[in-house]
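Lecture notes, unit on binding sites. The following record was shown on slide 14. It pairs a sequence with magnesium ion.
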Amino acid sequence: MPVGCAVVDRDLRLTRTNAALAALTGRSSWELLGAQVTEVFAGLAPDTPSLCHRVMETRTAIVGMFAAVGGRALRIDYHPLPATNGTPSDGLWIVVSDATVHHALTASEARYQSVVSAMAEGVILVDAEARITACNASAERILGLDQDEIVGRLLADSLSAAVRADGTPAPPDELPAVDTLRTGRAHNDVVRGVRGRDGRMVWLSLNSQPLLAAGESRPHGVALSFTDVTERRTAERLASSEMRLLEMVATETPLPAILRRLALLVEDHCQGAVCAVMRVSEDGAHLHPLAAPSLPVGYLAAIDGVAVGAREGSCGTAVHRREPVYVVDIATDPLWAGFAELAREHGFAACWSAPVVAADGSVPATIALYFSEPRAPADADIRVTELAVSIARLAIERERAREALRESERKRVDVLARMLRAEDEERARIAADLHDDTIQVLAGSLLSIDRVLRAARTNGTGVPTALTDARMLLSSTLDRTRRLMFEIRPPLLESHGLGHAVGELLDQTRRDMGIQVAVTIDLARLSPSIESLVYRTVQELVANARKHAHATRLEVSLTAANGRLQGLVGDDGSGFDTTRARDRSLMRLHLGLQAVAERLRLAGGDFSIESRPGLGTTARFGLPLD
Ligand SMILES: Nc1ncnc2c1ncn2[C@@H]1O[C@H](COP(=O)(O)OP(=O)(O)OP(=O)(O)O)[C@@H](O)[C@H]1O
Ligand SMILES: [Mg+2]
């Protein structure tokens, strides 16, 4: 690049020039000679004359001043003239160079600088050796480092502990800026985690852009810009952990497994925390560990059974107050006076505890977070703790509801068993009464009548027709009463079991009705209450077929599979409208089917009936056998 030179005298006139200066200023040498510096260069600072005199007097150079000539920016450096023969020369010399390009660059750079420094995005510039040459204020803020700690270092050193989005270590070669430098390829939205100065993970979304001058094929640097996505990422991860836990609650995973996962979630989202879920005893007076996957066994044993109270560490106090307690420094907090030594032995310096308050106002548990350094909760920590408490509340309440259900199921089965037993006892009593009382009386009356009839025949007094009629009536009543006695308490059921009793019932039906009966019975002996229930069910369904269906065929099947008894009673008779039959107002005096269905349901079974007028009826039922 041509450099113009000129010697300037005390009056600031040019006394000697070179050709380059003529070319730079666009004037001929003779035009320049004798002209004043201030005439030759426009736009000089107004204090240029005094500046020149200062150079002459102090004999020190002033460089980097600017002027304009014909639309060009010229840089002018003022130098004192070298001394001749020991005497300082009177005057100075100027060195002039074309600064148009440089000047334009500087101006755009200034504009660029102001934009970059105002940006919320962090920006880092690296040179061809991947050394950081500049960064903006946002980069300092996001990385939690000062400019001096960033600029001048190798990018790979600064981000050496980077991890990928899935948490695995990302080798420096894989950094987008390093790759861009090597290949010239730009990268967008690459997520990397780096550790900030306070040890917290900062998640960055990185973009890298090659810096290429015109004609260059390899980048001479890279502009790396990034935004802090820590909060967004944390919220997303927390939401997906929450989802997984809620799924566990919904699929009725056992409570200890849910709470264990919950403790791990808290540890994952609150840096440095060790989490314990503590159960409050039934009487509300003590605490016991429920899930604490990372707490030392010795410490767990020591805190098992600690009391609930106004000054009982973080957990005991939190349950007592029914609100979270944040002990920032165990060593100095009066709430920990009784346990500080124990905590110190296990390296715990801070402990927060958030109680789980259930919908009914009880406090079934509390969630504790231990730290090895004194620590006050940040907003993010409180968010995680609150989430953990709400999930624990949900899981515990579901578990309580399930337990209540199990309890009521136990009661229901118990009530049913007692009811069936009472019913059987009552039947036995009625059957015995019928046998010992009614049947004896009827039989006795029949004997008396027979005696009267015999005497009348012997005496030849003649027998009144009314007496013969009465005898017939009495005899058939005796038969029916005997049958009733057996129906009420079939003797075969107790002695030979369900299969025989049902077989006998169906034989009787076949004999009485003269219809075809197909029977399949494949059952071992069952508990007396179940056998009785099944017998009564078949009895009612067969009675209905006899009474209402006018069937020609009857099918009965009783089988067991997979711990369940399956029963079927079908006929090819008249059928009926099941919707009408279910109407209680119409069926007030017909309770057979309803009673059957209700008893089966009470025993944990099911009952269904299929029927259409003219198309026969099929009833099905099932019963658990355990
Ligand atoms: N197998 C069947 N074929 C035709 N109709 C039937 C059959 N089973 C039931 N029904 C009809 O359904 C009605 C209700 O039956 P349900 O057993 O409840 O009462 P019921 O037999 O009339 O009286 P109860 O059983 O109380 O002595 C019967 O009145 C009858 O009209
Ligand atoms: Mg009936």
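Take-home: Residues 540, 543-544, 592 surround magnesium ion (ligand 2) (CB under 6 Å).
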